[in-house]
Amino acid sequence: MPTRKLSALIIDTAGLTALTRATQCIAALQRRYTICAPPELLSMSRVINHRDGMLVIAADNGAIAAKLRQLAPRLLKNLQKQGPEITAIQIQVQVERVSARPRITVEKLPLPIDLIDKFENLSKKVKDPDLSSALARFAARQRKGR
Questions:
Q1: Could you tell me the strand order of the sheet in which 45-51 lies?
Q2: Same structural domain for residues 58 and 117?
């Protein structure tokens, strides 16, 4: 069996040909969108469909969608300069991915000894027994953590 390139196989397969054409169309529209859209919104929005002259843009959250809706008339005008087949823009909220941002851990510095002593002294002077007990436990934990 002769070897063929994957691209040739995709082109020859009838069902995949239509899918390939649609994907290429969306990729071309995404390139046009990249030229016309504000740079700060590009990482949070993308072209997802084009049907009957309607360009469908997905935004990662409601705030980005609202901003794109405000910019839609100007964006449509700029996109039409690049090619006349777009007659309207629809904005949808569609979360693409949940970013796994690393948790920021703050290194807690130990309290100075003199400050711990002041908490202990304060626990002895406070008249409220619950507050006095809480201050004494806090000072003890701080001493133990050193």
A1: 45-51, 54-59, 88-93
A2: no
67-87 residue pLDDT tens: 999 999 999 999 999 887 899
Give residue 36's domain range: 9-93
Would you say residue 1 lies in a domain? no
Does residue 55 contact residue 86 with C-beta atoms inside 8 Å? yes
Provide the 10 A C-beta neighbour count for residue 24.
Answer: 10
Query: Would the pTM of this model clear 0.70, i.e. be above it?
Result: no
Closest residue by Cα to residue 116 from 131, 129, 135, 130: 135
